[in-house]
């Protein structure tokens, strides 16, 4: 059975203070957690999926406004000798 990959820090590579700070920032009952969540909202931290969707949308808006910058004919990307 496979276990879900969990983000954590190792006591072999981090000091006790670093371990405590990490635990405080990921504990829902701690003010450091609430401060981190508020900071993420204020800086509009987004996931990679949301960021990718935003980029696609902005690219579509740009193409709609300025037109497509590259030819859409599939033959221009092929080998011209394939059609003999």
Main attributes of the structure:
3 helices; mainly alpha; 84 residues; 49% helix
Descriptive notes:
The protein is an all-alpha fold. 49% of the residues lie in helices and 0% in strands. The longest helix has 19 residues, at 48-66. It is elongated.
Helices and strands in order, then pairings?
Layout: H1 16-25, H2 31-42, H3 48-66
Helix content: 40-55%
Find the count of extended strands (DSSP E, 2+ residues).
0
Overall pLDDT confidence: 78
Shape: elongated
User: How would you describe the oligomerization state of the chains in this entry?
Assistant: single chain
Order of helices and strands: HHH
Count of DSSP H/I helices? 3
Distance between the amino and carboxyl termini: 56 Å
Strand content: under 5%
Please outline the major beta sheet.
none
Summarize the structure.
With 84 residues, the chain is mostly helical.
